[in-house]
Amino acid sequence: MDYIRFGATGLKTSRLCMGTMGIGSSAWKGWVLDADKSVPILKAALDAGINFYDMADWYSTGVNEEVVAGTLTRLTHRDNLVLATKAFYPMSADANDRGLSRKHLFRSIDRSLQRMGTDYVDLYIVHAFDPHTPIEETMCALNDIVRSGKARYIGASTMYAWQFAKMNAVADKNGWARFVNMQCQYSLLYREEEREMMPYCQSEGIAVTTFSPLARGYLVGGGSAARKEYDPFLDFFGDEIDREIAARLCMVAAERALPPSQIAQAWVLSTGNSTVPIFGADHPDQVADAIAALAVELTEHERQFLEEPYRPRDMINDYNPQRRPRALSTPPASPNIALVSG
C-alpha cells in the first residue's frame, strides 16, 4: 500500500480510504452489516495496509463509530490509524441535536469520541452546509475543537463550492483552522464536482476524498438485494444515459477480464481529481477488489469511451430538490468510438 500526503497538510494516508456507512446496525438500514459480519472486512482492510477510515455519527445512529473504531483499535495501535467522522444530521428528536451550531458540534465531538474510545479524531468533517447557523459560529466552534486537541484537522462534505469557499474565507479572515478536505460524490455517472469544487480544491491545496465510485452500486447492478430494497439514493440514477455508461463499463471490463467494479474505481483514480478515493465493502473480497483497482491503468481510448455519453445533470446535495437526472425522450445513439484493447 502506498501512502500519500493529504493535500497541503503533513498528514500521510493510505492511497484508499475505507468508507463505513455500511457497517454498524442493520436495524438502522436493512443493507447495513452488523458487528459480527463487519469485523472480517475491517481486518482485511487493515491487513492490506489501509490506515484511513471514514465514519459519521449519523451512520447507524452512533453504532457505526462504536463498531468501526472499537474493532480497529483492538487490532492495532490508535496512532497507526487515520480516523475521520462527521456531524450534522439529526441524532434525536431534540431540536438542538442537529446542524452546525456551537452547541451541537461540541456535543457531537464529545459523544463521537466516547463511542470511538479515543481522545481525538484525525479528521472532523461537517456532513453538510447548515443554512440556519451563521458561518462564523460554525467555523469558530470547529477552530475551538481543533485547538482543544479533540480533532487534528477539519473537513466538509456535500455542499456547493460557493458555500465551501465562503466557510474557508471566514476561517482565513479570523485566523481560525480552515478546511483541509472536501468529501464529495464522484463516479462515471456523477461528475458535477469537476466544474467548480475540484478546481477550487486543487487551487487551495485541499485534499479531495470521493465516495460512491460505483454510483450507489448502480454501475454494478445496484449492489446487493438488501441495498436495492433499502437504499432510496439509488433513485438518483437510472435514465438512458446512465444505462449506456453502465453498459460501456461492462464492455471495458469484459475486454480486460476484470470485474466492472475495478474498472469503475480505476476510472476515478485515473482522473487525478480524487486525492483519496473512498470505497465501501460488504465482504472481505471487495476490499481486495478495491486495492486491485490501484494497479489498473486505463488507456486514453478507454477513458474516452466511458466518458463520452455523460451530460450535465442536477447537483446531488441537500439543497437541490431535483433528485433525478434529465430523462431523454429517445435512447442515446450507439457508441461512435470503437473499443479496442490497449
Walkthrough of the structure:
By secondary structure, this protein is α/β, with parallel strands linked by helices. It has a single domain, classed as Alpha-Beta Barrel (TIM Barrel). The chain is built from 11 helices and 12 strands. The strands form 3 sheets. It has an 8-stranded parallel barrel, surrounded by 6 helices. A two-stranded antiparallel ribbon has the order 1-2. Helix 6 links the parallel strand 10 and strand 11. Helix 1 runs parallel beside helix 10, helix 8 packs across helix 9 and helix 8 runs antiparallel to helix 11. The longest helix has 17 residues. The chain is globular and about 55 Å long.
Query: What form results from the Cα inertia axes?
Result: globular
- Structural class by sheet pairing and helices: alpha/beta
Share of helix, binned: 25-40%
| Percent of residues in beta strands | 5-15%
CATH class: Alpha Beta
Counting DSSP H or I runs of 4 or more residues, the number of helices is 11
Side by side, the strands of the main sheet go 3-6-7-8-9-10-11-12
Mean pLDDT over the residues: 91
